[in-house]
Design a protein that fits this description.
Elements (H helix, E strand, L loop, with lengths): L14 H18 L3 H14 L17 H14 L2 H13 L3 H5 L6 E2 L4 E7 L3 E6 L2 H13 L17 H15 L5 H15 L4 H8 L17 H11 L5
Antiparallel strand pairs: 1-2, 2-3
Helix pairs in contact: 3-7, 4-8
């Protein structure tokens, strides 16, 4: 079937030209009697034949706080004297978890003896184990003991877990008080940057505990285990923070 459709400049054509091409393609699909699955097959093959690929998105460097901004933020948090906020916002940094993962942590996921937290179904539906500093274990133990009936590690007055939106609001409040710009995700970047600089961990080790490994590259890291040596590197690095 012949057609005069020219897709070579599709991305740069104006809206009217694109609408014309859509109409032409629609007529061909109807005339050929293609169903949904048939159209998906044809569309895929056309992309392959024409070597059509999405434009690569530029990668922006993650923004982290300066040492002074970091110190000032936590000073403001401590000044508010909300114990749960103090623990929650420190755990964001110590573990490098995503805010959605933080909100889903249950008390039963916390291993105080080994300073580990089990993260269930993180990004990409992957389970992993994250670490926290030994000096922080005492504070967490006290918090858990003070709330023996809590299901969630950080729980609202209504006995529900915090929403990601609420944690974002909490971070924004303290950030404005401290005169800095940050979100919950900033502390994930902050943790990874700190560990990269001070822990001596290999990239594979960092990806193991931060959950950054992509599915298609997980096989590369299968030989890495969360062993005592890795934990020692983590504890030594986090011990230098002085938070």
């Amino acid at each position: 079937m012949k057609t005069d459709i020219n897709t070579s400049n599709f991305g740069s054509q104006n809206g009217k030209a694109k609408s014309k091409i859509v109409s032409q393609i629609a007529r061909i699909v109807r005339k050929s009697g293609l169903g949904y699955d048939g159209w998906r097959y044809v569309s895929k093959k056309v992309r392959q034949v024409c070597d059509l690929r999405p434009a690569k998105k530029g990668r922006r460097l993650p923004r982290v706080l300066t040492a002074e901004e970091f110190r000032r933020f936590y000073q403001i948090v401590d000044r508010a004297e909300d114990v749960q906020h103090c623990l929650m916002l420190r755990l964001l940094f110590y573990t490098g978890v995503r805010v959605s993962e933080l909100c889903r942590i249950q008390v039963s996921d916390v291993d105080l003896e080994n300073c580990k937290i089990f993260v269930s179904q993180g990004k990409g539906s992957k389970d992993r184990v994250v670490l926290f500093g030994k000096g922080f274990a005492t504070a967490l133990r006290t918090h858990i003991a003070a709330h023996p009936h809590n299901r969630w590690l950080f729980q609202t007055r209504r006995a529900t877990r915090y929403s990601t939106r609420r944690v974002e609001q909490i971070v924004k409040h303290y950030a404005e008080e401290a005169g800095v710009k940050c979100t919950p995700h900033t502390f994930r970047h902050q943790a990874i940057s700190w560990l990269t600089r001070h822990s001596g961990m290999a990239d594979a080790e960092l990806q193991l505990i931060t959950g950054h490994a992509r599915r298609e590259t997980l096989a590369i890291y299968q030989h890495v285990a969360l062993d005592g040596q890795l934990e020692g590197k983590y504890q030594e690095a986090m011990g230098k923070v002085g938070l």
